[in-house]
Amino acid sequence: MLNLLRPALGRVLTPIGKAVARTGVTPNTITITGTVGVAAGALGFYPTGRLFWGTVVITAFVLFDMLDGAVARVTGKISKWGAFLDSSMDRVADAAIFSGLILWLGGRGHNLPLAGIALFCLVAGALVSYIKARAEGVGYTCNVGIAERGERLIIVLVAAGLHGLGVPYALHAGLWLLAVASAITVVQRFAVVRRQAFAEAQL
Q1: What is the tens place of the pLDDT at every residue in 18-41?
Q2: Three-state DSSP class for 24?
Q3: Active-site residues: which are they?
Q4: N or C: which end of the chain has fewer CB within 10 A?
Q5: Per-residue b/e over 1-39, b at no fewer than 16 CB within 10 Å?
């Protein structure tokens, strides 16, 4: 759904990308730094219950990580390796965020049922990404779903941040919403790939 905002986002990030590119920082360096920062914020703050500050740190590095594509475009350093690295590091960052929440909920947070929901969100999110990658690997398109990575990050970070500020049931509502949205997205992607496969079989 956030794909609709990509053109506008690109116009905002391009001048920033040009400024960053002049420093000599490479897109891959941005990707790795962003991932390390997200993982450090998630695993350093979330397991101890400091959800607000953990969210602040994670959000800062998520925004920084968004610059890798802009820098790659303005420097002409777009590559298959860069795309592969970016996608792989996204999975690492997502795993760190949900692992941090799971560690807290299963420990000091004393909420094993919600820890289970967080685990479901982690697995479902990975499956959403895998389905698209596998579909594209066999020649199909799979750009559908109500909860792609951008939406999933917004939901979990807003929920965790609000919980850290003391908003009652913010994390509960966010994780349940994310679980349902991720499950729907998995079904949507299976359906669109199935239609393409059946249509191809009829040719």
Answers
A1: 888 888 889 999 999 999 999 999
A2: coil
A3: 90
A4: C
A5: eeeeeeeebeeebeeebeebbeeeebbbebbbbbbebbb
